[in-house]
Structures are given as structure tokens and as C-alpha cells.
């Protein structure tokens, strides 16, 4: 655990103090602007999300400006709910209750049927209290953000969302360019960390220009790449081709394989399936096409591995194929990690898949909200985090968010989330339909919960529609 922590914190104590203080400073400024009606709730959380490179690691890696703003919104919405100022629609009340139902089912199964979990010494009581912690820290705040978006829908529209996204993207380009200059011109690790580069990525950096993995002020390069992929269709729709091109360049420099998948998803949802009127049908058809493509690639993986081996000195092959080849190549690991053609991360999704293969009945209920810590440690054997699993340290976050909902809450919950959060107003513009479907497909591969909630709430109501009911 110490080695992981040391890889995250700065070697300069003053830089670390600066980074740990920034989440509170940023959250305070954004909340001040919001409650003085200078910016909307949507802008508040999006601006905060774009600064998650700064975290209070002394408390935990998830204690970012977004977290503190989410908690503030949760307290605000809780007060409004208990004083009768707002109400909750039945379909959204169902989403609020589902994690509790999942945990209740798990507790009953463990007592009367089978207990497949591993409890580190002294941690068994945490199995029953962890869902409460999950609710307070993760689920209620996200629900509160959705409620805030709905309450401000008179001030919001899809075009305002698009303008905000593009504004953040342009600012992020400036930060990313500064990160590149700080490392390859000024060669200053301290400056790089101050402007958002994580210490662990600086440790991994080699002399190659493409090893930097820019992230602007986002939490990680893969998160930045997901954000950029969401902005590219917006730039293209407004014919801002130079900014779209710069978005693609920065996405390439994140060296994230998910970026390429998201670009493919954008083409499928917004162009290839543009004639499909139903958003839900478009989402499901897009997923089927993408999975089909993955299965074709998996069937030809040996060819691509050989092709990369012959051309690995090429910059293009390093950027596009290196990480994919690592995912598909099982000669070293001697363990198949391909599911429906997709190469799962061996330290993240694969152990969970193996666990569900052994305990398939859990697919109905999931393993319970926040209870990923109690997946038996043997499923992580051979991974860097194996010792932490034995000691019950840390949780287990899944980047593939459809899979995350399935694993945490079960198949019934995934269906409910999909049905409720794809409710859209009847007269929605064609591009907006395609974009909404694109966000949902990206959600399968990327951790973009916040963006999904925002776009879903905007698409569910008429622009400028008044009202006081929570979604």
C-alpha cells in the first residue's frame, strides 16, 4: 500500500500541499459563484470534474472538488426534500431504492443460501455497513446533481451544455500544451505536477514524446480522452473543424485505447445509425455492431500481434497498437481475458468476471453496493493489488460502467437504469438523439457517470421547461 501511495504523491512536499489544498479552494470558488447565480449547477460540476487531477490524497484519492460540490448539493437537496420544496417521481425513486434492494438480497443470500465472499480479519462488519457508506459518498450526491440539473432546466438547454463542454475543452488544450512544454522544453517535474500531471505518469515517462500521456487537469489520461471524445461531435456539428482536429490530436496523446473506441461509437451513433428514430434501439444496435467488430478483431488478434511486432519501432504503431496488443497477448499471462471479443483489464474487470462465472446467481442481484472489497482475493492472484486484497485495503472500481452497474446491483438494476435514464422528450432534435445515444455507448467503456446524468436530464425535459419536481 505504501508503494502505491508513494507513486501517487509528489516528491516535493510543497507541491503536494498545493495539490491537496486545491480541491477545497476550487470547490469553494465554484460554489460561491453558483449560489451567487453566476454559473449554473451544470457548469459547477463540469468545471469541477475538469480539475480532478488535484485530490486530497491524505484523505483518499476520490476527495476532489467534484466530491465536495456533490456533497454540498446533496445536503441542499436533502433539505429541500424534507421541507417539501421538491418531490421525487416514482421512476427515479426506483433508481434511488435499487442499490438498497441489491444489498438486502445479498445479505439474505449470504445467510440462507451461500456465502461466496472473503472477509479480511476484522472486516466482516464492514460488509454490512459498506453499502451505507456507498450511498452517502457516491450515490446520493450523484442523484442530487441530477435533481439540481432538473430544477435549473429553465436556464439550461442542450446548446448551453455543448457550449460549456467546448469552453472546457479549449481551456484543457492550453493546459495540455503547458504540460508538454514543462516536460520536453523546461524539463521541470515540479511544474508538471503543479499543472496537473500525476507523479506516477512522470515516473513511467521515457524519452519518447508520446510516453507523456497528457491529461490536462483531468483525473487521468483515460478520463481526459473520454471527455475529448464527447466534445468532438459537438465541434464537428458546429463546423469548428480546427478545434475538432485539436481534440483528436490531444486524444491521441492520451494514449488511451478507449479514445479510438469512442470515436468509432460516435460515427456509428451519429452517422451510420442516424436514420433510427428510437434512442434505445440506436444504443442497443450500436453496442451490437461494436461487439461484433471486437469479436472480429479477437479472431484476428494473432495477425495484429505479428503486425505490431514487425512495426513496433513506428510511432503510429506505438500509439495505436501497443496497448491493444498488450491486452490481447496472453503468451505471458497464460490466461484468456477476452469476453465477447473485448480484452478485459486483467487487474480490474477480469477478476470480477471470473468471480461471476463461479457464482452466476449473483448476476441477478450483483455483489452489493460498494462490496467489491469482499471479492475473494484469489481472483486477483498475480496482480499488483493482490496483497491489498488479502488485507481488505481499498475497493474495486470498474471503468466499464454498464458492467459496473451489473456487478454492483445486478441485471435487473441495469435494465431499470437503462429504461429510466433513456426517457427522452418526444420532439428532440436528430443530432441530440444521436449524441445522447453516443453518450450511453461511451458509458459502456468509460467512467462518465456525471456526463450521462447531465445529458439524460437535459434530454428528458423541454428546453426551459419550468417545474419543481425532481426528475
UniProtKB/TrEMBL annotation:
<keyword id="KW-1133">Transmembrane helix</keyword>
<feature type="transmembrane region" description="Helical">
    <location>
        <begin position="53"/>
        <end position="73"/>
    </location>
</feature>
<keyword id="KW-0472">Membrane</keyword>
<feature type="transmembrane region" description="Helical">
    <location>
        <begin position="435"/>
        <end position="461"/>
    </location>
</feature>
<feature type="transmembrane region" description="Helical">
    <location>
        <begin position="93"/>
        <end position="112"/>
    </location>
</feature>
<keyword id="KW-0812">Transmembrane</keyword>
<feature type="transmembrane region" description="Helical">
    <location>
        <begin position="12"/>
        <end position="33"/>
    </location>
</feature>
<feature type="transmembrane region" description="Helical">
    <location>
        <begin position="283"/>
        <end position="305"/>
    </location>
</feature>
<feature type="transmembrane region" description="Helical">
    <location>
        <begin position="132"/>
        <end position="150"/>
    </location>
</feature>
<feature type="transmembrane region" description="Helical">
    <location>
        <begin position="402"/>
        <end position="423"/>
    </location>
</feature>
<protein>
    <recommendedName>
        <fullName>O-antigen ligase like membrane protein</fullName>
    </recommendedName>
</protein>
